[in-house]
Amino acid sequence: xxxxxxxxxxxxxxxxxxxxxxxxxxxxxxxxxxxxxxxxxxxxxxxxxxxxxxxxxxxxxxxxxxxxxxxxxxxxxxxxxxxxxxxxxxxxxxxxxxxxxxxxxxxxxxxxxxxxxxxxxxxxxxxxxxxxxxxxxxxxxxxxxxxxxxxxxxxxxxxxxxxxxxxxxxxxxxxxxxxxxxxxxxxxxxxxxxxxxxxxxxxxxxxxxxxxxxxxxxxxxxxxxxxxxxxxxxxxxxxxxxxxxxxxxxxxxxxxxxxxxxxxxxxxxxxxxxxxxxxxxxxxxxxxxxxxxxxxxxxxxxxxxxxxxxxxxxxxxxxxxxxxxxxxxxxxxxxxxxxxxxxxxxxxxxxxxxxxxxxxxxxxxxxxxxxxxxxxxxxxxxxxxxxxxxxxxxxxxxxxxxxxxxxxxxxxxxxxxxxxxxxxxxxxxxxxxxxxxxxxxxxxxxxxxxxxxxxxxxxxxxxxxxxxxxxxxxxxxxxxxxxxxxxxxxxxxx
Length: 494
Ligand code: SF4
Prior knowledge:
494 residues; TIM Barrel; nine-stranded mixed beta sheet; globular
């Protein structure tokens, strides 16, 4: 796609315009000299700094169709905003006008891109604005649908309660196991999934445990308190019971765990779950696990190259649910190839019926590293009625069954521009998901592909420390744990 940007302001970078384009042109690559059939032109100028007046022109072309949107003047936001907002709003409103005319449908999240809707909603609620005012901000200023605005505010209100007792020195710990038994076709996560690479697991665990010990020392040095631990992947339950036991023992020797510490082990793939592994997890104090079918249709599982059956999921779920964990989560995905209204609603009924306390409804999002595009056109579908209807249906059905939304995030190139939402029965919320998604507290991370985010007390600043993406690089590079940068960061940010 050819993208031309005539940006005479200091507020928005090229990446911002690119991600905005992806809302109507998902999956596009941007090249200045591309002669492909899609084209976008952005003009943005601050015409009067004092009155925050902006002029914006957006031209969008798809094949032989062309549309233009304009904005010119000073916008009056429903809530006082910073200067950057006025630039975003001018370009966003012109972009939506052009997109609507060109494609004939609305975007459920308006022009919001690059900002976390629930974090935004909570920011204003925390500063005394009423839920109605924040919903009005979303619908009027950002042109978000009524439904998504209400979802954002409802989620933010639940987070306000969850986070009320999280102290300034509370933090999370994430441990990454980037190995999977096989690779699912839609996955873009960096995870090793063949027998040759599984030989790295013992060395990987040794290095990971060294980093966990060092991170435990850093947490003590910084005077922090671990509120939540999350072992994720990949597929952590690819480890055998002895490896699980060693890893979890290392964690409990490195950081202080007490009965109130939230502790989650993401089982993930049902085909890796066994009684012995769950016993090892439970014996080490883990209270929460996740077993993820994505769908309970064998046909859809086959379509997405996820090499387990619905029967394996039901077996693993019954086992886990019978073992007395505090909370068990199941992930589903809306918009999967071959899924139908009936099969999606059956998947939902299955996980509700089994009694999962957390149900996370994702929307299919296609990234470059995924294999799924070979199946055909239609995955980069910005309208994506089926995916949109599925997430809306899930929200209504889960609400009726007593589940509430407690965290939410959006990704680029998601079918139907829909979102991912974590639902929970009352009192079963997973704090880690909120600390991490909303960047509310520092989350230390260990392992390949993981990123520690040091969050300043004001939550305005974040320092990232990333480990190498691939397990092989992780083993060969000593990246350290970032203690010196962290000390400097916290000293400078109070
Ligand atoms: S199990 Fe999860 S992380 Fe592993 S390949 Fe499948 S989708 Fe990706």
